[in-house]
Amino acid sequence: METNEDFKTLDILARENSADKKFHLHDYTTTYDRVLTPLRYKEIKLFELGIARGRSHKMWAEYFPKGEIYGIDLFVRKHLHEIPRVHLEVCDQTDREQLENYGKKNGPFDVVIDDGCHHSEWTIQSFEVFWPTVKPGGVYFVEDTFFSYHKDLPECYTPPTVMGYFLDLANRICKPGLEQKGSYYAGYDRRSGPKSIEVLSEWHKTVESISFQMGLIMLTKRGV
After folding, report:
1. Three-class SS state of 117
2. How far is residue 121's CA from residue 173's CA, in Å, rounded to a whole number?
3. pLDDT tens digits, residue range 119-177?
């Protein structure tokens, strides 16, 4: 028999678990609910970078009763290993080799969410590593992109910023003619600004869409 538990929105679960994605803080739950509702009762794999107190991972486990929830951080509290269907590991977001090994071992994923350190360099690196682990038709989210505009946070504000990187990727997707000629900017030089570098053509083929909202970026992957 179905109970009221089956009808709880993600925002309700976020508030019950004190997760910072809730409506009255960041309001990411509205977007997540809209996009992820079709997956709610399927056997999906969701991976979120950044664990902290594990509140989001517990929320996701409740939202996806048949899902397997994965997460990494520099430290994992022992009691979090007791949450059913939640798989948490120690992994350094700044270490590309660790990330690649993790993706190979645990992927592919239906949903990837980056709520990690938010430093531009490591957020971009994480995307480059984990985008290939997203299943066709899957989604990749980057949270808290407002850090790109904080001048007092050089690790987030110094180009290439997270927002600058993904806006540039959106430009390349929308201008395939320029991309094919290798004449569109695909990166930045810290001293002179944009520079022309080799275009990631495989990303152009697999990224179906990029959308931006306050604090959140969503990328969808082309289906088979």
Report:
1. coil
2. 22
3. 888 899 999 999 999 999 999 999 988 777 777 766 666 778 899 899 988 887 776 55
**Which is nearest to 32 in space by CA: 148, 205, 44?**
44
Distance separating alpha carbons of residues 74 and 10, to the nearest angstrom: 26
214 domain-assigned = yes
CA torsion through residues 39, 163, 127, 154, sign:
negative
The DSSP output letter for 161 is P
User: Is 57 part of the annotated catalytic residue set?
Assistant: no
Within a domain: residue 76? yes
Domain holding 67, by residue range, is 4-149+207-221
Q: Identify the sign of the CA torsion 211, 216, 222, 224.
A: negative
Identify residue 45 by its one-letter amino acid code. Answer: K
Asked if residue 74 has pLDDT above 50, the reply is yes
Residue 61 resides in a domain: yes
The CA angle 173-179-182, to the nearest 5 degrees, is 150
If one counts the domains in the chain, the total is: 1
CATH of the domain at 39: 3.40.50.150
| Residue 172 covered by a domain | no
Residue 183 pLDDT more than 90? no
Non-local (6+) Cβ contacts of 167 within 8 A are 212
3-state secondary structure 23-79: CCCCCHHHHHHHHHHHHCCCCCEEEEECCCCCHHHHHHHHHCCCCEEEEEECCCCHH
Catalytic annotation, pick one of 87, 118, 119, 204: 118
